[in-house]
Amino acid sequence: MTDATGPLEPLGRPGQPVLDRLAFERLSAAHRRALKLHCYRMMGSLNEADDLVQETFLKAWRARSQFDGRGSARGWLYAIATKSCLNAIKARSSARRILEQPRRPPSEGEATGGPATELAWLEPYPDAELPDIADDRPGPEARYEAREAVRLAFVAAIQFLPPRQRAALLLCDVLGWSAIETAQLLGGSTASINSVLQRARATMGNRYLQGRATQWLQPSADEGVLLERYMQAWQADNLDGLVELLRDDAIYHMPPWREWYRGRPAIGAFLGSVWSNFAGYRAAAVGANTQPAVGVYALGRHDSKWRPHSLHVIEPAGGNIASLTIYVPPLGPSLFAAFGLPPEPVVS
């Protein structure tokens, strides 16, 4: 069996106990980040991914006597994690997390609906938590490169797949498992898994344009310049400069608000309606979903205090911003700690 990090290694010799406490701790340390990313892709939630990777290792420890070294430790852990995710999805109220409500048209003008905290919103993923994917070599069945399969747009698209389709697509097209191996994990025949994959790929073809992210798989110098200009626009109170960074057909989401905007004029008009709500802004660069990201702090007009305000995930294209997802209050500030951002801006 193989996955996106190469051959899946066995632990010890077949038929012998291999998972004493020390070996299990080494195993956990080696695969924790990769498994957490897998759980995040399945769930669309950073917090749920944390819980599920803990659950995976707890189940693995309790079942360690069943692992005799004949197979791959990594494959064994992925099987436990995937089943845990499927059970968790079945138990929760929503099978998917979203960046926008299906069939909701783009908005114009001010946003008046308020935060929709009852909806399950797709969360961003800190680059600091990613496994080392720089030199990943997906297995022979994989269809997506490692960096592409972390992008926010990709994770948003796979959330629209039914859970079994989602699991099959991630195992086969991202991790590079074969249909035979995936059938052994999910149950059913190889033919049934191939049928599931066919439906999943059709949905992805509609929701995630093939080739969309290939031009952005590796960070570029232009990306760094764009991020710097974006941060300067916020800190210099330069709304016009920020809007100039957008592509004409840019898309803007702001979870947990339902409203979303398409096109530079509509985005600029909306931002203009809220820009002066605070007395100033400070920005700190982070990384999210292998994309440029920024944590923005806002200065209160009445109490002159700096507070975490929003987390911004940027999708660059050709030196401009193709998509901008700004996680605003109350969701945005709750994400700062996970991205290593302090409760107040650091003054240099």
From TrEMBL:
The keyword Transcription regulation applies. Belongs to the sigma-70 factor family. ECF subfamily. Keywords: Nucleotidyltransferase, Sigma factor, Transcription, Transcription regulation, Transferase. This is RNA polymerase subunit sigma-70. It comes from the Bacteria. Residues 152-204 form the RNA polymerase sigma factor 70 region 4 type domain. Residues 97-107 have a biased composition (Basic and acidic residues). Residues 228-283 form the SnoaL-like domain. It holds the Pfam family Sigma70_r2.
